[in-house]
Amino acid sequence: MSSHGLTVGFLAEIMQGNELQNPVVQILGSKRIAGNGEQSERFRLLISDGKSLYSFAMLATQLNDLQKQDKLPQYTIIRIDRYTTSVVNRNEKGEKRVLIIVELTVLKEGSLVGEKIGDPQPMTDTPSQPATTQAPSRPMDTGSNSMGNGASYGSANRSLSGGSAGPTQSIGDSLTHPISSLSPYQNKWVIKARVMSKSGIRTWSNAKGEGKLFSMDVMDESGEIRITAFKEQCDRYYDMIEVDKVYFISKCQLKPANKQYTSLKNDYEMTMTNDTIVQECKDADGSMPEIQYNFVPISQIANMEPNAMVDVIGMCKDASDVVQFTAKTSGRELRKREITLVDSSNASVQLTLWGDDAQNFPATTHPVVLLKGARVSEFGGGKSLGLIGGSVMKLNPDLEMAHKVRGWFENGGSEASVSSVSARTGGAAGVSTEWLSFQEAKDKNLGAGDKPDYFQVKAMIHTIKSANAVYKACPQADCNKKVIDQENGQFRCEKCNAEFPNFKYRLLVNMLIGDWTSNRWVTVFTELAEEMLGKSSQEIGSSLEYQKEEAEKLFTSISFKSFVFKLRTKVEYFGEQPRNKTSAVSVAPVNHKEYNALLIKSIQELTGVGKN
Predict the structure, then answer these.
(1) CA-to-CA distance for 297 and 276, rounded, in angstroms?
(2) 470 strand-pairing partners
(3) What string of H, E and C letters represents the secondary structure of 368-409?
(4) Three-state secondary structure readout of 60-105
(5) Contacts from 457-460 at CB under 8 Å and sequence distance 24+?
(6) How far is CA 239 from CA 199, 309, 569, in A?
(7) Coil, strand, or helix at residue 207?
(8) How far is residue 442 CA from its own chain's centroid?
(9) Where is this region: Disordered (predicted)?
(10) How many other C-beta atoms are found inside a 10 Å radius of the C-beta of residue 412?
(11) What are the residues whose beta carbons fall under 8 Å from the beta carbon of 77, sequence distance 6 or more?
(12) Any residues with CB less than 8 A from the CB of 413 and at least 6 apart, and which?
């Protein structure tokens, strides 16, 4: 090292595929590379080790703020605590290795150094040797890897012994690429990744044939990505893939990820092909990050918004029998089981399982249940949990939190009095909900708090927006996402990442209802709308599409009729404009005897009649 502590020769070493711990370098310049579409902006650095200059160093995106806050000015000396390297293919310019700085420590500010150290010379552009990686111990987002000059990350595979990879050579013998370095412009790569989650198999059948698919989310020390397998690849790899295991994966097709339907921090996703190779890594070392969980006490689920994603660990206190029934819309046979989970927050929550998850659940053994990425649902003010495509469920995992919750349960927790976050607070018949007029609800400013508010009112239906009362939804039992008509006889569900030859109708009826004080627009969802109209969603949807006059008569039949509505109200913001969104959680015909008794009681309270 020089007197300034630079790691002389570091750059030449990593160009040869060698690793050096905590190298010290000097920053001599930087350049901002603008983001492109979904991709984040990047910062490219000119660095020196005292002997060589190197212009292909990039800051990982999580370090961008250091550059934006001018904490890495010219002449600053830094220690690179974590880094990864890969090879870029610059087309006619050949290959070049890129150094991605993931973590760093500023040792001396540039203003205190004030000059370039030594006489470093530019490194040559000769093709570099295969890439190696100094792997960090936890996952991180290094962001997009566009260099902004047409470059893309390329292959760096070879056998560990230095020879060419033969056709029968194990994929595990190749050096691997970081997930964050992949792009659609390269086709020779191998990743080594841990499976975070794995979906069930989804099937479809149409005039073109039958098909199936499953997807999995994988991660390494640099990032994460979704992989989907269709048909033959689904058959080949579904049983082989297990959550938490590590695999070598190569020869998948990359395409831009649909950010609307995935929260993974990657601009791309993968599709398996006939050439795809997947091989389990039997000797995964400690460099592979473990799956991270952000467990939330069950009691806090009561405060979460519908469709939020949550990690939970709890004891199975009760489990219903498997219920089998036929879906009205698709005619499919469905299986369902309800699980009650409890934890030391002295709260319980209902978990709904479907299909094989429901059938295979060991209800009699009261297992510890770990959920990652479960979806929160709401009905009648109560919250429940369900599994979606990227969710993970583990039973009796060997984790400290699992042992703690079992210890709590076996030492008194099983007999503890718990409150259910799934109990309906406004939607079920027989549950007490405050009677208010619309004006009283407005005066009380209902819905303006952190949680939704509930009240009930006797109101008359004034107007129904029939034109948009139905939508075409995914035919899968556990999905109600609106499908996209492909105009070829197929309907695509982006959430399930699949196409189907059919769909199901779902109701979303907006109606203006009023009492003697005011009126309000209210949304009535499928089940309640079917009860009010006396028809199934399928019948109503078909009428609106093919017999509009009959459909209008159906909606008119309930106009100017009065019902008892139990309502959920919550102020939501659209841009900067607050709107009070109100939806019905139950609707019932008016029981005039009970309602008159309520009115008499109210009059007595106002006049003091009947008081002692």
Answers:
(1) 41
(2) 507
(3) EEEEEEEEEEEECCEEEEECCCCCEEEECCCCHHHHHHHHHH
(4) CHHHHHHHHCCCCCCCCEEEEEEEEEEEEECHHHCEEEEEEEEEEE
(5) 457/515, 457/564, 457/565, 457/567, 458/515, 458/562, 458/563, 458/564, 458/565, 458/590, 458/595, 459/513, 459/514, 459/515, 459/519, 459/562, 459/563, 459/565, 460/513, 460/514, 460/515, 460/560, 460/561, 460/562
(6) 12, 26, 46
(7) coil
(8) 36
(9) 113-172
(10) 8
(11) 4, 5, 6, 24, 25, 26, 27, 106, 107, 108, 113, 117
(12) 315, 342, 344
Check if the beta carbon of residue 264 is closer than 8 Å to that of residue 240.
no
Give the residue among 292, 284, 406 at the shortest CA–CA distance from 344. 406
User: From edge to edge, which strands make up the β-sheet containing 484-485?
Assistant: 484-485, 491-493, 498-500
Contacts for 473 with CB less than 8 Å, ≥ 6 apart: 479, 480, 481, 482, 483, 503, 504, 505, 506
* Longest Cα separation, the chain: 100
> What per-residue string of b and e applies to 126-163 under the rule 16 or more CB within 10 Å gives b?
eebbbbbbbbbeebbbbbbbbbeeebbbbbbbbeeeee
CB–CB of 143/180 below 8 Å? yes
Of 307, 311, 308, 277, the C-alpha closest to 291 is: 311
**CA pair distance 494, 479, nearest whole angstrom:** 11
The pLDDT, as a whole number, for residue 284 is: 66
Q: Please report the pLDDT score of residue 39 as a whole number.
A: 46
Tokens, residue 570: 């919550």
List the structure tokens of 41: 């902006």
Centroid of chain to Cα 215: 13
b/e 519-537 (16+ beta carbons within 10 angstroms → b): ebebbbbbebbbebbebeb
- pLDDT given for residue 99 in this prediction: 84
Q: What residues does 577 pair with on adjacent strands?
A: 574
Q: Round to whole Å and give the CA distance between 38 and 569.
A: 35
pLDDT at 34: 65
Looking at residue 509, its pLDDT comes to 93
In terms of pTM, does the model score above 0.85? no
- Contact between residue 408 and residue 343 where contact means Cβ atoms under 8 Å apart: yes
Residue partners of 567: CB distance under 8 A and separation at least 6: 426, 454, 455, 456, 457, 522, 582, 583, 584, 585
Inter-CA distances, 159 with 89, 155, 169, 492, 512, Å: 20, 13, 9, 42, 70
pLDDT beneath 70, residues of the chain? 1-3, 34-40, 86-96, 124-175, 206-208, 259-263, 284-287, 327-331, 380-381, 424-433, 573-577, 609-612
Give me the phi and psi of 410, to 5 degrees please.
-80, -10
User: What are the structural domains of the chain?
Assistant: 10-122 (2.40.50.140), 174-280 (2.40.50.140), 298-420 (2.40.50.140), 434-471+506-598 (2.40.50.140)
Do 383 and 302 form a contact (C-beta atoms < 8 A)? yes
* Predicted local distance difference test score (pLDDT) of residue 26: 94
- Please, how many CA atoms are within 13 Å of residue 582, restricted to the half-sphere of its CB? 22
